[in-house]
Amino acid sequence: MHDPAIPSLTGADPEIARLVQAEARRQFEKVRLIASENYVSTAVLEATGSVLTNKYSEGYAGRRYYEGQQVVDPVEELAVTRARTLFGVDHANVQPYSGSPANLAVYLAFLEPGDTVMGMALPAGGHLTHGWGVSATGKWFRSAQYGVRKETGVVDLDEVRDLARAERPKVIFCGGTAIPRTIDFPGFAEIAREVGAVLVADIAHIAGLVAGGAHPSPVGHAQVITTTTHKTLRGPRGAMVLSDAEHAKAVDKAVFPGLQGGPHNHTTAAIAVALGEALDPSFGLYAHAVVQNARALAAALLDRGFDLVSGGTDNHLVLLDLTGRGVGGKPAAKALDRAGIEANYNTVPFDPRKPFDPSGVRLGTAAVTTRGLTEEQMPRVAEWIDRAVTAVGDEGELDRIAGEVAELMSGYPMPGWA
């Protein structure tokens, strides 16, 4: 059952309680390979569900617009201090509600409507809020988008430099949502300096790897860093904007009062807990294990004849290109889900298919590493993926795989399930 137990919810709203219990069981029984998901600790769950949700706190610690902040201020100060310590930055704002508002704060802080922003194109692995056309960031600002080389699946910094020189952006984003290779922060910083742009590193996917020393840090290269606090960082659904001292005031004004009112204090407390956990030396072991598992999974998939964007991975993320398999990413992802393997369909660079029915499936190893799976289990996971993709439409085979998955996962404890 769900842990912590939910007797009051069960009594007050048994329908919702039943759904919460069902979701906890679902998370326990599946191999969860969605690259943007993880399991938080029981301590983070408890902080998220605390009475701090009752308190309204517009402003910043020591500068609030409501009274009764004697407890909330120290909570936010702890989160800020831990973020600064963990990432080695001058300044941290822990109030953004999620990753997209954190990125929007960058626009409000450093751009005027119509100014040029440069980011990675969504089909190449970037994020909607890096200037993609359907996003407000692409509608309200002039967008220049870079991609990856077709032959390698990785960014060509010479092409990025040529684009930056031609477009003269005021802000350059590096990072994204489907990038399986190490981000060259020094290379991007050199380009940003040359054209006089603010470099923003969006490390939402790799923040935990950066914190644990399993991916190079953007600190000292990017003036501003945005990140969510879940994914590899194993915190609640929130976000942070980190910066050097020079850009701190603009960041804070953009978050509040520029974009939002009172922060979610229960989330702030949970962020503080997660950051405290990440400061423990054991977190570094976890971060490196995430990468080791991803590399082992990628190798096992390659052995089974799968095509991987860029040919492998340097981080937590593996991007399958199913073009050669004769099946789309969407039916493959649905078959995997039926088989007890949670993933998401995803575009691949130069995808000939439409975004809602793309050629790829995105995988990540952060959550299974939290559960305790190691490199030893990755070939078996790859076998299940191979069987499920081959068995699209064969519900009997998919159900057999799901039973095998549930049997394996029953031996690995899950925070949130007792």
Report on this model:
The chain has helices at 7-12, 14-29, 42-48, 72-87, 99-110, 136-139, 157-167, 185-195, 207-211, 245-259, 265-278, 281-303, 329-338, 366-371, 378-390, 395-409; strands at residues 31-32, 59-60, 63-64, 91-93, 116-120, 142-146, 171-174, 198-202, 224-228, 239-243, 307-308, 317-321, 341-342, 344-346, 360-364. The longest helix has 23 residues, at 281-303. It has two domains: 47-278, Aspartate Aminotransferase, domain 2; 289-409, Aspartate Aminotransferase, domain 1. The chain is built from 16 helices and 15 strands. The mean pLDDT is 97. It has 418 residues and is α/β, with parallel strands linked by helices. Helix 4 runs parallel beside helix 11 and helix 12 (281-303) packs across helix 15 (378-390).
Brief description of this entry?
The chain is of the alpha/beta class.
Which features does this protein show?
Aspartate Aminotransferase, domain 2, 15 strands, 16 helices, globular, seven-stranded mixed β-sheet, 418 residues, four-stranded antiparallel β-sheet, alpha/beta, 2 domains, Aspartate Aminotransferase, domain 1
What's the gyration radius in Å?
A: 21 Å
**Strand element count:** 15
Overall helicity: 40-55%
Between the first and last Cα atoms, what is the distance in angstroms? 5 Å
CATH superfamily of the largest domain: Type I PLP-dependent aspartate aminotransferase-like (Major domain)
Number of domains: 2
What is the general shape? globular
Low-pLDDT runs: none
Please name the CATH architecture of the largest domain: 3-Layer(aba) Sandwich
CATH level-3 fold name of the largest domain = Aspartate Aminotransferase, domain 2
Number of helices: 16
Sheet with most strands:
7 strands, mixed
Strand content: 5-15%
Strand order in the sheet with the most strands: 4-10-9-8-7-5-6
- Helix/strand/pairing class, anyone? alpha/beta
Pfam family, one: SHMT
EC number: 2.1.2.1
Modified residues (N6-(pyridoxal phosphate)lysine): 231
InterPro entries: PyrdxlP-dep_Trfase (IPR015424), PyrdxlP-dep_Trfase_major (IPR015421), PyrdxlP-dep_Trfase_small (IPR015422), Ser_HO-MeTrfase (IPR001085), Ser_HO-MeTrfase-like (IPR049943), Ser_HO-MeTrfase_PLP_BS (IPR019798), SHMT-like_dom (IPR039429)
